[in-house]
Amino acid sequence: MQPSPTLPRKVLSVRRLVLLASVASVGAALLFGGPGVQTNIPFVTSSASAQSGSQVSAEHAPRPTGFADIVERVKPAVIGVRVKTEAVSQREQMQFNSEDLPPGLEQFFKRFGMPGLPNSPNSPRGRQFSMAQGSGFFISPDGYAVTNNHVVERGKSVEIQADDGKTYPAKVVGTDPKTDLALLKVDGDNFPYVRLSDKQPRIGDWVIAVGNPFGLGGTVTAGIVSARGRDIGAGPYDDFIQIDAPVNRGNSGGPTFDVDGNVIGVNTAIFSPNGGSIGIGFAIPAETVRTVVEQLKDHGSVTRGWIGVQIQPVNSDVADSLGMKKAEGALVAEPQAGGPAAKAGIASGDVITSVNGEAIKDARDLAKKIGALAPGATAKLGVLRQGTDKVISVTLAEYPKDQQARAKSEDRETNTETHLGLTLAPAGSVAGSGSKGVVVTAVEPDGPAAERGFKTGDVILEVAGKAVSNPSDVRTALNEARQGGKRTVLMRVKSGESTKFVALPLGRA
């Protein structure tokens, strides 16, 4: 067997997020492989426990409780996924882009384990094909199987290898890039399968990962649930389970089991300084998998509810500015014109605190709850507006394609707010800044505004809920906030094509 080509890499930082699809052969795996991880397993009690000073033979010594019985039951349902991909040149690879791919995942696909990588840095002009590898598992006896979207994306053909060594051609029923899930179908029946767990794992629970790392099918590792609800910057619906069971390239799409043999998550990515496992892996929760797979099976795609708002977290400064006791909920920075929220009367500065009676912890929680609802459904949003609680009904639309744009502004000094570290000018006087608000023409590197993320070209639209059109309006609003006993002031700021609220400490005039 010839070793696989070296994959192109770019160092991001000491820690890197690595997707687990693999184009490595077994030969390459020996190069990437790291030391094993020892796991302390609880010992069973024995009636033949040693007495002080007595000799205990190995036959009667306490034995560790293992996972062999569980593995024996679930391992036959785990499959290897092989994807034939068309290799692309370096230039084509750098130009690769998908409107449906979350920005975070797109960057990682370009750098780590993306199916379709060229066979060498200087690949020939003629089209070549390579095999990408991943993992998956059967969820029904009639051949439906789950894997990751990034395993099968851009694949020309897909086949699966069952635990007994048999191979089958597979059809991609549907994919969901936003959660990185895909549903496959193999013709046949009586396939061994496993069930998705219907309960949340607890932090500290034992877990078992089974998969196809580096093409080594049927590999079993064990660990615990390290954390839940992880946001790793992969997309708007991040809600990963963190595990420390060692997983590597090729484990992508493979299941993580609880001690009852139910799937608690689908392995997707790892943090790693070198491309190998360091015991920080991430799995898509079973409840997300169940919801997505049902839609992929019925429709071949996933539709999500959408209300059309730009939202941001409510941090302590924002909460203090709005007179909130707790930093919870999602702050509406800007409702999209003509969107469901705008039509229902949601306004900038509203804090969405609940959806259909369920409390909203933060902006990510709101995106998750709205995305779980069907387009056309009516959601009752609990809203805090200027200290008053309201309930507003919003009819959801279907989540649209993401659109991104950038804008630039020219610098032009007019008036300096020294206590904030900002230099301001009327937006209408600076080309490209529009006609509303006050544009930031300079930011002091060590000032309070720089610490809160202000940059040249940002446009301040409101200060403490009041529209501003020139620097003197800003100063007046700040003075009024100080006289009212405020320690921070909330500004509505347009940055590029997005709008957000920023809480700034008032300091001295």
The count of strands amounts to 28
The whole-angstrom Rg is 27 Å
Structural class: alpha+beta
Number of helices, counting only DSSP H or I runs of 4 residues or more: 11
Strand content: 25-35%
What does the overall shape look like?
elongated
Explain how this protein is built:
This protein is α+β, with helices and mostly antiparallel strands. It has 3 domains: 14-32 and 63-302, Thrombin, subunit H (Beta Barrel); 305-398, PDZ domain (Pdz3 Domain, Roll), CATH 2.30.42.10; 415-505, Pdz3 Domain, CATH 2.30.42. It is 17% helix and 32% strand. The protein is built from 11 helices and 28 strands. A hairpin with a 5-residue loop joins strand 5 and strand 6 (167-176). The longest helix has 14 residues, at 286-299. The chain is elongated and about 80 Å long.
What keywords describe this structure?
509 residues, alpha+beta, Thrombin, subunit H, Pdz3 Domain, 3 domains, 7-stranded antiparallel beta sheet, 11 helices, 28 strands, 17% helix, disordered N terminus
Could you outline the blueprint of secondary structure elements for this entry?
Layout: E1 16-19, H1 26-32, H2 68-74, E2 78-86, H3 90-95, H4 103-111, E3 129-138, E4 144-147, H5 149-152, E5 155-161, E6 167-176, E7 181-185, E8 206-211, E9 219-230, E10 240-243, E11 255-257, E12 263-272, E13 281-285, H6 286-299, E14 305-306, E15 309-313, H7 316-322, E16 330-335, H8 340-344, E17 351-355, E18 358-359, H9 363-371, E19 378-385, E20 388-395, E21 397-398, E22 415-417, E23 422-426, E24 438-443, H10 448-451, E25 459-463, E26 466-467, H11 471-483, E27 488-495, E28 498-505
Antiparallel strand pairs: 1-12, 2-3, 2-5, 3-4, 4-7, 5-6, 6-7, 8-9, 8-11, 9-10, 10-13, 11-12, 12-13, 14-21, 15-16, 16-17, 17-18, 17-19, 19-20, 22-23, 23-24, 24-25, 25-26, 25-27, 27-28
